[in-house]
Amino acid sequence: MIAVIGLVVGVVAGLLLQPTVPLELQPYLPIAVVAALDALFGGLRAMLDGIFDDRVFLTSFLSNVVVAALIVFLGDQLGVGTQLSTAVVVVLGIRIFSNAASIRRHLFKA
Amino acid sequence: MSEPEEPTPPPEPVAAGGWAALGKALRFRASRGQILAGVLCAVLGFALVVQVRQNNEASLSGLSQADLVRILDETTSRGDALATEVNDLRSERDQLVSGSDKRQAALDALRRSAETQGILTGRLPAEGPGVVVTLTEPNGQIKPATMLNMLEELRNAGAEAIDLNGHRITASSAFAGIPGAVTIDGAELATPYVWTAIGEPDTIATALQIPGGALATVRSNGGEGDLRRGTKLEIRSVRALGEPQFATPVPPAAG
């Protein structure tokens, strides 16, 4: 419940504050958001599996974000930033899909 | 990275099914895990909204350097292509304009030339300043030679268009007949002979009136001449010219 409230609070805060993303963060923010989404779905699935652990959730959330940003940073330095960003998004997307499928199986038994 | 990989032993089996587990998780419990998840979700929601807004606001600022360079390249080459096209079209337009100018100039020159030729050959009606000379025969008869002398005098004085009793006088006009029955180009003339000549009035008047000149000859024939100057005379008579039968233009010398 608190998670849902937190999500709503974050969205409202983003809408109200209307912050501008610093220039250095702009390439990393979209990837970080996708990585965080992956962590969120992973956490949801773990909760339904009954193995949710807040420490693991925190670690996976932060590490997902940091690793995704690092990969993009590295790709930018190597000159393959666009392709590597695409790769990260594809991998995270697959994980989100598989997590979503697992959640679906838990909820709908199908 | 995600939970299922962690070797955490399942503390409680979810036998009641997914919905029960979800409902249990959604219950308001101020546990450490719940608060932590809430904070992280807040961060995620915030970042999500910010990113979406950013993406909508400025499409270019979110792009990587390579993309920007590519877009710049594309824009530059597109601009170059358009500039080249502009130049091509401009030069084409210039060519067309100058072409039509030349054409127009040639047409104007031809039209002026045609007007000049038309007046000089008697093909076109003419108007302008000039003199009207009326010859009568109160005491005698005017000879054809006198009429020719009159015409020569008018031409010498620079008359550009000449009319005699409604007959346009041109280069091929010829007087014939006998005194009292003068003919012009085969048409008999009746007195009074009315000459209308368009040209510089003073010059013509002076030329006709010099001693021993045209009017003096008329008087020696027993005729009378009356000379009037006009600032705007009209010659309506025209003369149709046939195609030259023998003469053809000399082709312009090459080069």
From TrEMBL, chain A:
Its main location: membrane. InterPro entries: DUF1290. Signal peptide: none annotated. One of its GO terms (cellular component) is plasma membrane. The chain crosses the membrane at residues 27-44, 56-74, 80-98. It is a multi-pass membrane protein. Keywords: Cell membrane, Membrane, Transmembrane, Transmembrane helix. Pfam families: DUF1290. It is found in: Cell membrane. Belongs to the sbp family. This is DUF1290 domain-containing protein.
